[in-house]
Design goal:
229 residues, alpha+beta, eight-stranded mixed β-sheet, 8 strands
């Protein structure tokens, strides 16, 4: 098993190295179509492992709740359009979940856990720091773009065998920019760019978590545009 995992990791590293060489070559030639083609050829961009989020703090920050009231959220298939109604519904659902037989968790602790994990900034930062070293180059840089509310945050919360489980999906928008086209003051960091990207991409962070025992797996998937404008 370990040998297979090592072989897969080696193939992934080789594929990313080849892609980076191609991206630098075609970025210098201002060839967006070949950059896009080079990225499409790398299947590993569809499933890149991320570290799990750190344990929630002892106290929930009011700003985290406030930010969620500005989001479009789908909770167990039910859409919520940026309002306090989502928070009250989530609290009620947490109470019902924790009231089930065999579930050993306080509803307030579950609520705080979920609100912290749902912060879009977590998924955005983790995606950026994982993807920028892969698709960035001396000629290209990955930067967030200001379309953060275009995709809803999707949360499913359920109980199985006395264990609380969640699936969480968050999509953030990024752009690949040629450094030659970006002002020096705008290079670097997580500040969202309002400029039109050379190539726009979306990063989808999917997390499956057993909240009861703290185990979770997270991956980021890169969605590339079907066509160039």
């Amino acid at each position: 098993m370990a040998t297979i995992m090592t072989m897969n990791a080696s193939k992934q590293d080789e594929a990313f190295s080849k892609m980076q060489t191609s991206l630098s070559k075609y970025a210098r030639a201002n060839d967006r179509r070949m950059v896009l083609r080079s990225m499409r050829d790398v299947k590993y961009l569809k499933c890149i492992a991320l570290e799990t989020t750190s344990a929630p703090r002892d106290s929930l920050q009011a700003s985290e709740e406030e930010l969620l009231t500005e989001e479009n959220i789908v909770l167990n298939g039910v859409p919520f359009d940026g309002s306090n109604h989502f928070l009250s519904t989530l609290k009620e659902l947490c109470a019902k979940v924790c009231d089930q037989d065999g579930v050993w968790m306080e509803s307030d602790a579950l609520y705080d856990n979920l609100v912290t994990r749902m912060a879009r900034s977590n998924a955005s930062a983790d995606s950026f720091f994982k993807l920028n070293p892969l698709v960035g180059s001396p000629d290209l840089i990955l930067m967030p773009t200001s379309y953060k509310h275009a995709f809803p945050i999707k949360l499913n919360l359920y109980v199985a065998n006395g264990q609380i489980h969640t699936t969480l999906s968050t999509t953030n928008s990024f752009g690949l920019f040629r450094k030659a086209d970006v002002k020096p003051a705008d290079l670097g960091g997580l500040k969202a760019s309002s400029s039109r990207p050379w190539i726009g991409i979306h990063a989808v962070v999917d997390e499956r978590s057993n909240v009861s025992n703290g185990q979770a797996v997270r991956h980021v998937k890169v969605l590339l545009p079907e066509n160039l404008y």
